[in-house]
Amino acid sequence: MCGTRCSGSLAVRYGTMKDNVLAMKVVLANGDLIKTANRARKSSAGYDLTRLMIGSEGTLGVITEVTLKVQKIPEASVVAICSFPSIKDAADVAIATMHCGIQVSRVELLDEVMVKILNDANGTDFQVAPTLMFEFIGTDAYAHEQNLRVKKIAEEHQGSGFQYFDSPEDKETLWRMRKEALWACLAAAPHAEAMTTDVCVPLTRLADCITKSKEVLDASPLLCPIVSHAGDGNFHTIILFDPSNEEHTKEATRLNEFMVHTALAMNGTCTGEHGVGTGKLKYMEEELGYEALKTMKKLKHALDPNNIMNPGKIIPPHVCL
Q1: pTM of the complete model
Q2: CATH number of the domain encompassing residue 42
Q3: 135 beta partners
Q4: Domain FAD-binding PCMH-type spans what residues (predicted)?
């Protein structure tokens, strides 16, 4: 989690890993053990080494200890779901909800392909249409009040079948289904492999990006369900393909590249939470520019002059000092 600066469905409320780590201990390439910070909630003492290490994917050091923030468990929570005629309508509601200042802890968007897969895997009968899942937290009265506010917003965008759940069993069942989405996809195509990719754009561009991407995904012969952390502009596509089929592999790669270039054209990022590794190296210069990558290379060389820490990741090989 720290290595890729990743997050999940609760990031819209609590932030990503960079927002939840106070300090860490890291072993550098020369064997030095450093402490990046103390436990104070804020500090302006020197370079922010904690943030430097978070997202470095093991290229600058080995993280051996992490000091995390502890979040309060909310008094109450309500989960709501609602269906929409198009994925754009669903995304527009997610955007409107965030812009209204409603304190949600999760806003998840599933396209109709994903909803059908989850229905088949779990024996449920949710409407097969683009769907939003919300979670509201706080006092019992506050959570239910926010639920009603979002219901009104959804109805203004052609939302239908709005349901809410406040029993622990129902809430657990719904979030378990969401968390197991990848495994449900693999079960839906047992002879396929999954290319899981993600992009993230400014929230105001989510509807445009996800709509444009879905048009291309729907036209593909491959099964490509979408799931999105819609509250922070991040969405994933699980591209199911046969790796032994050259045409499938080319098509999966084409779809991934289309999503990335679409997001970058909207001032987004090639990866919201999965990290760069080697798979997204080729997009780094387009996203950040050569000078930024050269600066990263200088930092890498200063801390790891012999290039022994996870070499070949994050920084493209053509970047020179």
Answers
A1: 0.93
A2: 3.30.465.10
A3: 79, 106
A4: 1-73
The amino acid present at 293, given as its one-letter code, is L
pLDDT tens for 204-260 read 999 999 999 999 999 999 999 999 999 999 999 999 999 999 999 999 999 999 999
Assigned token pair, 171: 């809430």
With 0-12 / 13-18 / 19 or more C-beta atoms within 10 angstroms meaning exposed / middle / buried, residue 47 is exposed
| 40/82 same-domain check | no
Task: Tell me which residues of the chain have a pLDDT lower than 50.
Answer: none
Determine, yes or no, domain membership for 195.
no
CB distance 12 to 229 below 8 Å = yes
Predicted pLDDT of residue 103: 84
User: Residue 41: what pLDDT?
Assistant: 87
Tell which of 132, 153, 178 closes a domain: 178
The CA distance from 147 to 143, in Å, is 6
Q: Residue 218, Cα to own-chain centre: how many angstroms? A: 21
Q: Which of 254, 255, 290, 286 is nearest to 270 (CA)?
A: 286
Which residue, among 43, 118, 124, 60, has the nearest Cα to 296 in the 3D structure? 60
Element (DSSP H or E) covering residue 97: helix 87-99
Q: Domain limits at 139? A: 76-178
The residue among 300, 296, 298 whose CA lies nearest residue 284 is 296
